């Protein structure tokens, strides 16, 4: 390298990035202080110092805790990648030949298995230091399995994560859509309303109770209407029943997308807008380095936005 002086001189250092990531995960200065082994005032001062260096506010204080601003989200997303890349570089320098780190992964929702296996195959090429295996037997209760040490990492949608014992990070969102036969009375509607869902049978798979609660809250708010659910274990069966006009299939865009090109099924959104389901990655602190590598890789390889419009 001819001119080292031409390289950028960042204002932030590794300690700054770790403070911001800890606050993003913990959402309070007190919990972040515990994770970082610092005092709460020290964490508050460190955050102010980072914001001063950047000339931007990174978090808003809300009743739900610290919520990243747009600038904060930008920094959080990039910080994880930088730390993972630096850690990988250090590891290659210290020990060029190392055994793969083995982690056990499960998904709270079966819909992730429509894309996760192929994603993991690609990750083996880009992350040879990680050996990720699926623990499908813990799909129904991933958080208790994490706490018991039976798995290391979990992709979750609605389960609550005890932050005193586990780490978690926002990953991405998929869209839940409503699929009906092209001959269904609702097929001509531009959008659907909660009243439409009350009047027709909803076709779903077996989902965790926490996800059912999330769905009702997002669609109906505090109301708890009596809905007609038909729980069908097989995705293909859900599609076939919807195709026959016997109900409204409630599906992830990942599942619905491949079935919408033939003209016999149509996907609808609510009039209130897309029903976005947030996904998070949760892990045991003992596998933090491996989990962050997996997180950074999933952020760039996981599918999203499969439905246009």
Automatic annotation (TrEMBL):
Can you tell which superkingdom this protein's organism belongs to?
Answer: Bacteria
Q: In its keyword annotation, does this UniProt entry include 4Fe-4S? A: no
- State the InterPro entries in the record: LysR_HTH_N (IPR000847), LysR_subst-bd (IPR005119), WH-like_DNA-bd_sf (IPR036388), WH_DNA-bd_sf (IPR036390)
**Which keywords label this protein?**
DNA-binding, Transcription, Transcription regulation
Q: Where is the HTH lysR-type domain?
A: 12-69
Cite the GO molecular-function annotations of the record: DNA-binding transcription factor activity; transcription cis-regulatory region binding
Protein family membership: Belongs to the LysR transcriptional regulatory family.
Instruction: Please report the name of this protein according to its UniProt entry.
Output: LysR family transcriptional regulator
């Amino acid at each position: 390298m001819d001119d080292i002086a031409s390289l950028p001189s960042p204002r932030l250092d590794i300690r700054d990035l770790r403070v911001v990531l800890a606050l993003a995960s913990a959402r309070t200065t007190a919990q972040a202080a515990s994770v970082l082994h610092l005092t709460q005032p020290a964490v508050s001062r460190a955050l102010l110092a980072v914001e001063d260096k950047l000339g931007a506010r990174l978090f808003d204080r809300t009743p739900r805790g610290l919520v990243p601003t747009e600038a904060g989200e930008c920094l959080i997303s990039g910080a994880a990648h930088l730390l993972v890349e630096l850690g990988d570089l250090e590891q290659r320098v210290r020990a060029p030949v190392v055994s793969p780190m083995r982690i056990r992964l499960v998904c709270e929702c079966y819909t992730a298995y429509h894309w996760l296996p192929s994603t993991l195959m690609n990750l083996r090429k880009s992350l040879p230091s990680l050996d990720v295996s699926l623990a499908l037997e813990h799909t129904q209760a991933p958080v208790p399995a994490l706490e018991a040490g039976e798995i290391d990492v979990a992709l979750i949608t609605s389960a609550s994560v005890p932050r005193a014992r586990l780490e978690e990070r926002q990953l991405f969102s998929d869209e839940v859509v409503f699929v009906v036969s092209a001959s269904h009375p609702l097929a001509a509607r531009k959008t659907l309303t909660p009243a439409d869902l009350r009047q027709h049978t909803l076709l779903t798979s077996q989902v965790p109770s926490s996800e059912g609660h999330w769905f009702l809250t997002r669609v109906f708010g505090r109301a708890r209407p009596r809905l007609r659910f038909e729980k069908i274990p097989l995705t293909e069966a859900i599609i076939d029943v919807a195709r026959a006009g016997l109900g409204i299939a409630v599906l992830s865009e990942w599942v619905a997308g491949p079935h919408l090109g033939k003209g016999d099924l149509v996907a609808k959104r609510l009039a209130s807008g897309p029903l976005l389901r947030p996904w998070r990655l949760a892990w045991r602190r003992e596998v933090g380095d491996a989990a962050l590598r997996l997180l950074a890789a999933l952020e760039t390889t996981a599918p999203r936005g499969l439905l246009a419009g």
